[in-house]
Amino acid sequence: MPQTPPHHPAAAARRFDHIETWVFDLDNTLYSHEAGVWPQVDERITLYIMNLFGLDGMSARALQKFFYHRHGTTLRALMDDYGVDPEDFLDFAHDIDHSAIELNPLLGDAIERLPGRKLILTNGSRRHATSVAMKLGIFDHFEDVFDIVAADFVPKPDRRAYETFLRRHVVDPARSALFEDIAKNLVVPHDMGMTTCLVVPRTVDPFRDSFEQEAVVAPHVDHVTSDLAGFLTKLRPGPESGRPAPEPVPAAR
Q1: Contact between 114 and 121 (Cβ < 8 Å)
Q2: pLDDT tens column, 198-247
């Protein structure tokens, strides 16, 4: 994976001057892959499939990836095709060790200083999001967590998940920004009017496919950063509106 500049915008990127609601994905967005959180969840999902179908690890892993690519999440496939209890699955998948997640005061300070509302939008569970945000020291900065249960188990990038989120929290997409680590999850939000920022890893994550870590050049990606705390810290009041706008950085596209 080529080295990604810390921050760079698209040529016609939407700005942040007008933003009133700041929306953040959770996994691999608010923390780096070095924390080792997602590999644990991934392994728990594989183990769940092994136990459910009586498969060996390799076969269960292949089926898990098939479910993910076909349905958006493994859970959606298990619910639709096999009647699995979603709460049971979520409790099992997120029963992990969070001890490697370190307090991130720089991120906490940057999020706290953002003017307006802050929300977490995740395909995971509220319990998992709360545990991670507490470890990072940022939980108190967020108004609420919108999880897969609140989305009626419809995952991103399905348009219905975003529609439910916007309606539930009375969010104007034209005055909101979304920070997310998976580029395809930004397509619908950008189409709805949200300002989008793709968060990519600073170093290669060996547990994820390379295409999921690329600084994607696409119309639905307004900004790309490999340093979320640094990116948010660089937001300064706009000269006209008093709202934040990113400091000029060299365009790398």
Answers
A1: no
A2: 999 887 666 677 667 677 889 999 999 999 999 999 985 444 344 444 44
**Scanning the structure block, which residue is given the tokens 């802050």?**
118
**Residues 165-177: pLDDT tens digits?**
999 999 999 999 9
Q: In whole numbers, what is the pLDDT of the chain averaged over residues?
A: 88
* Cis status, amide bond into 157, omega within 30 of 0: yes
* SS3 of the chain: CCCCCCEEECCCCCCCCCCCEEEECCCCCCCCHHHCHHHHHHHHHHHHHHHHHCCCHHHHHHHHHHHHHHHCCHHHHHHHHHCCCHHHHHHHHCCCCCCCCCCCHHHHHHHHHCCCEEEEECCCCHHHHHHHHHHHCCHHHCCEEECCCCCCCCCCCCHHHHHHHHHHHCCCHHHEEEEECCHHHHHHHHHHCCEEEEECCCCCCCCCCHHHHCCCCCCCCCEEECCHHHHHHCEEECCCCCCEEECCCCCCC
**pLDDT of 250 higher than 90:** no
